[in-house]
Amino acid sequence: MKRLSLFLSLLLTTMIVLVSVGISLADDGTIFRRNVSKAEDLATGHAAIKMLPVYVQPQAADGTVLEYISILDAEGSEVEQRTYVQPLIVHYAEGDVETIEEDGYGGFPGHGHRDAFGAVSLDGGNTWKRSNLSKSGDLSSFKIK
């Protein structure tokens, strides 16, 4: 009984050490950062990026079809060339924000004119085709009588 207890405690200790080492050595990789809006003077917020689960031929934002895109490692050197990409979709809000300094003010932290934008990249985030979604409200195909 004493041997079994000693064996189980050693096994449990070994498992805890191995799991701790594995977690501490885990690497999430480099952070994917892209300045999609290209507006440095306006506050950009409420952003989200989504990679679609389909593959398409690489294409620049101006419509130029590309033969391939280069996949780079963390140091910036080319690892491989791909003839396919997964489209990236981004949406964000942009505009001047006037913050409210009042204590106890909850909810949205400020007010001001903002526009909603959407952007698509078909070349791994190198170029973006941007659209102002706020100006598309009157472009609906619905006819209301």
Describe the protein.
The structure is a single chain. This protein has 145 residues and is an alpha+beta fold. It has one domain (30-135). 17% of the residues lie in helices and 26% in strands. The protein has one helix spanning 2-25, and strands at 43-51, 69-72, 78-82, 88-95, 114-121, 129-132. A four-stranded antiparallel β-sheet has the order 1-4-5-6, with no helix packed on it. A two-stranded antiparallel ribbon has the order 2-3. A hairpin with a 5-residue loop joins strand 2 and strand 3. The protein is extended, with a radius of gyration of 25 Å. It starts with a helix and ends in a 13-residue tail after the last strand. 8% of the residues are buried.
Give helix % range: 10-25%
Span of the ends, CA to CA: 84 Å
Name the average pLDDT: 81
The stretches of 5 or more residues where confidence is low (pLDDT under 50) are none
Order of helices and strands: HEEEEEE
How can the largest sheet be summarized? 4 strands, antiparallel
Alpha-beta content class: alpha+beta
Coarse morphology = extended
- Integer-rounded radius of gyration: 25 Å
Beta fraction of the residues? Answer: 25-35%
> How many E-type strands?
6
Assembly classification: single chain
